[in-house]
Amino acid sequence: ATDIETKETTVWASERDENGRFVINLTKLDYNTKYYYRSVVRYRGVREYGELSTFTTNDFSIDISTEDVTDLSVRTVTLRGKMHINSIDEMSGTACFLYSTIVSDLEELKTKGMQVDAATVAEDGSFSVELPYTSVNTQYYYVASSTVEGKTEYGELVSFSTLPYAEPEAVDLGLSVKWASFNLGATKPEEYGGHY
């Protein structure tokens, strides 16, 4: 219940021990917040208050890094990041990437970049997203980001360039037409390409 006169939130203990001590467990407190509290006894409609005391809840921090891309092909690339939550409490968070082909400044990327969310974060804090793209030979800027309990942190801004358009060679197989040396959407003979 909330006491309107004192603006305090009152939580009543369900029992006390033989020495008159009682304990209240508070949950869902805000992190890094100073709280004021005092004991109160109610007897025959009269309240008596103990001395006012304070405590501050623990804070937490997020370490996050933007890692180099992997699996760069002519159609997709894998963005990678890693996060670690420094806290005595067991916590989890969400992760994503912000990216752009135009914006190369981190602060501007936060408001104007495209966002792609990571579906999961592994136990070691790593996460990744396969990003499809259509612009060949283009520089992309991206940053890993994580949000925990409303706090968002960003890694360092990283860039990569997509592959240039690959010009196949004409191969004479002795047929009526010449064949390309690799499939459409591929860059070398061993790639599948775009499955046209």
Question: How is this structure best described in words?
Answer:
This protein has 196 residues and is mainly beta. Strand 15 and strand 16 (179-180) form a beta hairpin. The chain has 1 helix and 16 strands. The strands form 6 sheets. Strands 9, 10, 12, 13 and 14 form a 5-stranded antiparallel β-sheet that branches. Strands 7-8-11 form a 3-stranded antiparallel β-sheet, with no helix packed on it. The protein has a two-stranded antiparallel ribbon with strand order 1-2.
Q: Which SSEs are present, and which pair or pack?
A:
Blueprint: E1 2-3, E2 8-9, E3 34-37, E4 40-43, E5 46-49, E6 53-56, E7 61-70, E8 76-86, E9 94-100, H1 106-112, E10 114-117, E11 126-132, E12 139-148, E13 151-154, E14 158-161, E15 170-171, E16 179-180
Antiparallel strand pairs: 1-2, 3-6, 4-5, 7-8, 8-11, 9-10, 9-12, 12-13, 12-14, 15-16
How would you sum up this structure in a few lines?
This protein has 196 residues and is mainly beta. 16% of the residues are buried.
Characteristic key phrases:
single chain; 196 residues; five-stranded antiparallel beta sheet; three-stranded antiparallel beta sheet; disordered N terminus
Uncertain residue segments: 1-5
Spatial gap, N to C terminus: 67 Å
Structural class: mainly beta
Give the overall silhouette: rod-shaped
Kindly estimate the percentage of residues that lie in beta strands according to DSSP: 35-45%
Radius of gyration: 29 Å
Order of helices and strands: EEEEEEEEEHEEEEEEE
Query: Can you count the beta strands?
Result: 16
Number of helices: 1
Largest sheet: 5 strands, antiparallel
Mean pLDDT: 85
How much helical structure, as a percent, in the residues?
under 10%
